[in-house]
Amino acid sequence: MHVAALEWLTFGLARMTEAAHRRGLTLHLLTADRTEYASELRRIPPGHLVVHDVDTSDATRVAKQLRTIHGLAGLISTTDVGSRVALEVAAELGLPSQNADAVRLARDKAALRRHLHGAGLSRASQVTVDPFAPDAAAVSGTLSYPAVLKDVSGTGSEGVWIAYGPDDVPGILGAARNGRLRGGALTAEPYFTGPLYSAETLSWDGETRLLGVSSRLLSPLPYFREEGEAFPVALPAPRREELSAWVSAVLDGIGHRGFSHTEFIVTDDGFEIVEINPRMGGGLIGELLCGAFDADIHAAFVDMALGNRPALFDAPLVPVRGMSEVHLIADRTGVFDGFEGEHLLTGHPGSPRLHSARVPGQTVDSITDWRGSVGSVLAEGDTAELAMHNAAAAARLVRPRII
Ligand SMILES: Nc1ncnc2c1ncn2[C@@H]1O[C@H](COP(=O)(O)OP(=O)(O)OP(=O)(O)O)[C@@H](O)[C@H]1O
Ligand SMILES: [Mg+2]
Asked: What does 8-50 look like in DSSP terms, one character per residue?
């Protein structure tokens, strides 16, 4: 039997391939650019993964390619940009899929905010702004400040701006017009102040299980680049209960099925959602979960792709260690040429390991969003806090070379 993945996250493809292989399944990757997975592909034993080069933004071509795979039983989608095509193709080929309405709602940040506000799960609503509309700047008088203006279907912290006051809005609209707007419009909402976390969850049949909470360290403003994550954050039991009930209400309320990570800010007035991602966290989040639980959570992707309740949902999950990732950020755009200092990781506490997101020769187009992260140092510790200190200390030793 065969399962297919429509693109994948930066990391985790090798683990996913092995999870499928252990179940006697062959994994197929459909990708528009296999060089994105160069580091992962090097770790996959020959014959375990079949790579298909196809324009993954085109549902017709994807469906045509999938029809060539005899015995295809499921389609896995883990990326924001591929999520809509995956739903369309799964419906056409009669394959199990996520709840289409939930994915569509989560991928429209304006509609999601209105939904949450209407359901009493967010204090604020939003205003949709078409940056090309002649009177777009007029909206500046109606916002409360500081405000965030972001791509309604953004990903990777591209197309996110903070406006401290009305005077900032025209410049932001200009930048949005010149940039890559995936959703074609911006959503404006209040800037919630506080630290950012993410609830890592698995949902099935109207129930949500909180696997744990990961932390997020961000770059200094005006950018929102993620620079570090740790898992599992030790919340006091009542806080965890409160969070678990809240995130279940949010996800079950939209009918989500599968992995998800709900990013939220802890404000002085309670939790505020930043966004719901109907997929597992990016970067090395999958690796952090596997390490913390000493279990391979990718088997759940196989279960769900086949339309079955994931065994992970009912498995006892007790964290055995903390895990953290600290990103290695390019200091300028250019061509990535490898890392300096990797040898210094030997003997450093926390068993740090370098994970490269790029292969030498690839270009770094931007350093203000996810594209600036060319790799990460992953480290462990007795707790998430100690893992984060180990990863941060170790990451200082390694420097991306850009030429
Ligand atoms: N209303 C808000 N208040 C405060 N910060 C916000 C708000 N909305 C977005 N942000 C910040 O901007 C970042 C990016 O926003 P968001 O998560 O919606 O976009 P994204 O591009 O989908 O992110 P990802 O990198 O997770 O794919 C968030 O991580 C958060 O730090
Ligand atoms: Mg986000």
From this structure: --SS-HHHHHHHHHHTT-EEEEEES-GGGGHHHHTTSPTTSEE
